[in-house]
Recover the amino acids of this structure.
């Protein structure tokens, strides 16, 4: 219904010009919203007639303009009245005084209708009670469009019309907006729906995104989240990941620009990971889980499309790697025998959190024979020594994603997080003479100045991080090797999730 | 017709003309920025030798770490002290 249109009863309710705003008032008296498709609405038609003859009654009909006919109704054709007055069920009976709603009831209840109308004899012969039906204004097929139309769009992004003969997916490939896989077209409806996932205003600035160093709003992050395939409930995780990535400590610019094959690895934990259906079990680092895959992808689409970081331009990776498309997983912190990484970084129990780590694709440690913690610690250390290069030490961090069967070996022996890390670290020391450039006939290595050192650890304190995820079967763990660490490069960055 | 929202930062790039290429480096100050990669100094020492040989003055600078962009102050310093800068990537 357009502003100023008159309902089908001619003398019915006339909306003020400039309607479909939240301030559109309802007429004084009684207001009932119905739709013909609803059996309960049909049931109350005789009651509407009774009421209409005795007091001021305005009926709005959502579907058929001719329903109920007697009494005549105003057609809420664009569902603006229903939207603005939060009609979730039909019939809804509302009492309005001085332009303000004072009472409402939903569905049919003879007692409630008699009380609100003040007519204590209506509805004779009808059932005492009937539940109502869903309002068309909350129909999942319509609600997104209604939100765009009536939600007072606060979206600021430029609108781009896709020509009728053009496939939106192909158009977005052509503009260079994808990571090589198709992206979901970010229509206003989808972006508005995405924004329901956070309490933050669309215009809030989230971070300054490299390499172009432009401030990104919640709205633009939501656009990337839509394109990545996220659901609205993932948005707080994406926003937090963007915030954590675009800090001096994480150094997303350097991570993007480096020739090394690293990307932002996102380790999520807390009850929220289960609420949004993230995978921390079998195949946690692999395919098949929407939340894991799309949260990581959304962050990278922000860097690509908003930050301007594209391969061959600022991104100078020699090989790149799968971590650069999306690398995001959940820890099984609810069943972990040694807590979670975020806890190690000071986040309180029960708080949703994520850690960003500049890392490459995972490497598997196969050890199906170790049944003592010492043997398994030595075994893991052998592989960890090789992160990036066995002769390069202290420059790179690593995350161990320990599978449940490996964790059990430590757990059964009473080793907690600190004991496991210390136990592995005990076997990660090498004499400087073995690591120096040229040692062992290999030119690569640490500077000759360190050749006299008795013993050098592979990792700096805190540089070996432990996480717990994976399926119940398989005596394996995964190692995620890092990039240049600390102030020289990137520090693991942990943040509580902001909703 | 589908309408979509622009995922980019929608910024308009400022266009600036390049300075004219100098006919000769003689007497000019050339900045050499070491990005702090291993052996970068060996390469730049040789470049400095060659530049000095053709009459250029050379000033050397280095980034604190190759893994981060050059700090703003350093870029300003180079811009104010040099007429020419050689910017290169290691690896």
């Amino acid at each position: 219904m357009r502003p100023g249109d008159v309902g089908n009863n001619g003398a019915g309710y006339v909306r003020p010009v400039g309607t479909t705003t939240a301030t559109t008032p309802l007429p004084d008296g009684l207001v009932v919203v119905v739709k013909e498709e609803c059996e309960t609405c049909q049931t109350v038609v005789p009651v509407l007639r009774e009421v209409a003859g005795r007091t001021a009654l305005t009926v709005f009909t959502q579907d058929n303009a001719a329903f109920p006919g007697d009494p005549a109704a105003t057609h809420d054709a664009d569902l603006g009245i229903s939207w603005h007055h939060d009609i979730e069920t039909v019939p809804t009976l509302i009492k309005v005084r001085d332009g303000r709603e004072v009472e409402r009831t939903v569905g049919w209840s003879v007692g409630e209708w008699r009380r609100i109308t003040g007519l204590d004899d209506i509805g004779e012969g009808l059932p005492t009670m009937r539940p109502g039906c869903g309002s068309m204004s909350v129909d999942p097929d319509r609600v997104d469009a209604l939100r765009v139309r009536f939600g007072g769009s606060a979206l600021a992004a430029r609108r781009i019309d896709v020509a009728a003969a053009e496939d939106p997916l192909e158009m977005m490939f052509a503009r260079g907006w994808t990571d090589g896989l198709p992206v979901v077209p970010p229509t206003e409806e989808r972006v508005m729906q995405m924004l329901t996932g956070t309490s933050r205003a669309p215009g809030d600035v989230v971070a300054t995104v490299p390499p172009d160093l432009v401030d990104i709003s919640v709205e633009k992050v939501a656009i990337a989240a839509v394109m990545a395939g996220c659901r609205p409930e993932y948005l707080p995780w994406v926003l937090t990941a963007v915030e954590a990535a675009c800090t001096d400590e994480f150094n997303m610019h350097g991570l993007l620009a480096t020739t090394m094959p690293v990307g932002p690895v996102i380790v999520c934990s807390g009850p929220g990971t289960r609420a949004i259906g993230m995978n921390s079990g079998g195949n946690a680092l692999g395919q098949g889980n929407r939340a894991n895959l799309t949260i990581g992808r959304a962050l990278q689409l922000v860097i690509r499309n908003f930050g301007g970081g594209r391969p061959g331009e600022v991104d100078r990776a020699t090989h790149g790697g799968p971590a650069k498309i999306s690398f995001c997983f959940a820890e099984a912190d609810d069943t972990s025998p040694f807590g979670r990484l975020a806890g190690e970084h000071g986040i309180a129990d029960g708080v949703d959190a994520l850690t960003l780590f500049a890392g490459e694709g995972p490497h598997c440690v196969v050890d199906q024979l170790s049944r003592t913690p010492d043997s398994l610690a030595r075994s893991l250390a052998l592989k960890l020594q090789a992160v990036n290069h066995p002769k390069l030490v202290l420059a790179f961090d690593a995350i161990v994603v320990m599978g449940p069967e490996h964790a059990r070996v430590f757990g059964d022996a009473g080793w907690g997080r600190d004991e496991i890390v210390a136990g592995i670290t005990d076997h990660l020391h090498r004499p400087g003479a073995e690591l120096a450039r040229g040692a062992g006939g290999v030119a690569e290595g640490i500077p000759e100045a360190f050749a006299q050192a008795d013993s050098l650890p592979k990792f700096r304190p805190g540089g070996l991080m432990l996480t717990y995820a994976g399926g119940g079967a398989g005596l394996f763990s995964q190692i995620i090797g890092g990039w240049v660490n600390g102030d020289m490069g990137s520090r693991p960055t942990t943040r509580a999730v902001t909703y | 017709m589908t309408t979509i929202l622009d995922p980019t930062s929608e910024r308009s790039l400022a266009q600036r003309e390049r300075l004219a290429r100098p006919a000769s480096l003689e007497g000019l100050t050339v900045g050499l920025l070491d990005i702090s990669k291993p052996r970068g100094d060996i390469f730049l020492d040789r470049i400095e030798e060659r530049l000095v040989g053709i009459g250029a003055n050379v000033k050397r600078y280095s980034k604190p770490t190759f893994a981060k962009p050059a700090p703003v102050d350093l870029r300003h310093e180079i811009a104010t002290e040099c007429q020419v800068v050689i910017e290169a990537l290691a690896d």
